[in-house]
């Protein structure tokens, strides 16, 4: 239980302490009426019952019942409020954590598992505070109070009534430990299925195109059936624990009843005491049974909270300091980077002066995207350092670094929001006229004007209602609007047709003037005017210089250029086409 409390804030811990106190008060309000029941029964068995006294006791019990209803309602609302507040803060903490972890962590973790943690696991954890704590506090307090009171009256019947409780607790704990492993496996399978379901939905267009929708669904269906079988097995094992607990606890009632009859027949028990134990014991086992049922679900809650802790305890990128007026230059000083025990960059050194354009070219997997990712600090370099101006970027805060960099990657993500809000991300007071000007300059304005509400049109999640080229142009406009001194472009025009590509290249050349630009280029014709071209192969810079110098050197760049020219001249020969 202590592991789950780590996810609460200080304010919520105060709320939890308050709820514990309220739960104890509720238990008192449930238990105290039994005292008056005892007094009424005792008075009724007296020689001359005092009915005024009896009615007074009944009145007090009625008042206590009314107070208990008010307190119980407050406890329920407070517990649920605490649970929902905890769930909100846990999700916020998880979202904040994901901003601080290295990109490598996110690449290793299954998106379906993260989705299950953010939604399903947090919901299970909420129930610890909204249901389990309240039930546990009220039940344990009530049982303790009743047992103490009954022991004072007759310890023999009290011991007989509780005789099965210690064994029930031991058996319950043992069976729950046996089922904990299965709970973990089931949650893992559910997370895996969530990932498969997300993959199936996102790839349904591709699957239909290749007539694989049925085959892939069969795989998903097999996972669902496997989860169904495992869930039934889990329910069986999970049900054994509370059923054993209930059986052993209720054996105490039979033992108490036999003891009561024996003592009463032997003249060792007064009638009012016998009636008291019969009444109390009929209600004594109900809260224990309810608690057992809640505890049967606790392994799910515990495993869910443990998985949340796994994410919250993931290593973070070290946080630096805020630095103002940084020179917009980038320098790699003998930078090496290893991912999954595989060297990606090896002792890379170069400098990008302010206001210059640096192009990164090379075969696929040579380390181009890794360089831009390291500048954006999605990872930290394994060796060496990266400087912005004279300051290592690891000494900068994430906010400071983000303020100085605009990024445009091939994989464009747009939120389910208006185009205007998507374009002005991170801009505190956006100027609508400037947004329109940039949209016109980046060839976005024509298709925006054709949308129902123009800039105020809400686009689907991930920009689903737009074409790839339209999303790419909006991404470029978004980077331009940010107006950061350093711009990172990962083949920003790859999704555009030749006409729009030319227009955007002209717009970019004007709009990124006097900025430090680093571009990953697959189309070498777009970077012939770059101030420097870095040619990478197997994580090493093998050539550097301007276009003409590199072309004349007859090295890798020359080979890449000729291969691209040949590819542009390629055409499908009708003689090579066979007809059925």
Ordered list of secondary-structure elements with their pairings:
Layout: H1 2-5, H2 10-44, H3 51-100, H4 103-108, H5 111-153, H6 155-161, H7 165-202, H8 204-209, H9 213-265, H10 271-296, H11 298-312, E1 330-339, E2 342-352, E3 357-361, H12 368-375, E4 383-388, E5 391-392, H13 398-403, E6 405-408, H14 419-423, H15 432-441, H16 445-449, H17 468-482, E7 486-490, H18 498-511, E8 516-520, E9 532-537, E10 540-545, H19 547-552, H20 556-568
Parallel strand pairs: 3-8, 3-9, 6-7, 7-8
Antiparallel strand pairs: 1-2, 1-4, 4-5, 9-10
Helix pairs in contact: 2-3, 2-5, 2-10, 3-5, 5-6, 5-7, 5-10, 5-11, 6-9, 7-9, 7-11, 9-10, 15-17
Description:
By secondary structure, this protein is of the alpha/beta class. It folds into 2 domains: 311 residues, ABC transporter type 1, transmembrane domain (ABC transporter transmembrane region fold); 240 residues, P-loop containing nucleotide triphosphate hydrolases (Rossmann fold). The protein is built from 20 helices and 10 strands. The protein has a 6-stranded mixed β-sheet with strand order 6-7-8-3-9-10, sandwiched between helices. It has a 4-stranded antiparallel β-sheet with strand order 2-1-4-5, covered by helices on one side. Helix 2 packs antiparallel against helix 3, helix 3 runs antiparallel to helix 5 and helix 7 runs antiparallel to helix 9. The chain is elongated, with a radius of gyration of 35 Å. The two termini are 70 Å apart. The N terminus and C terminus are likely disordered.
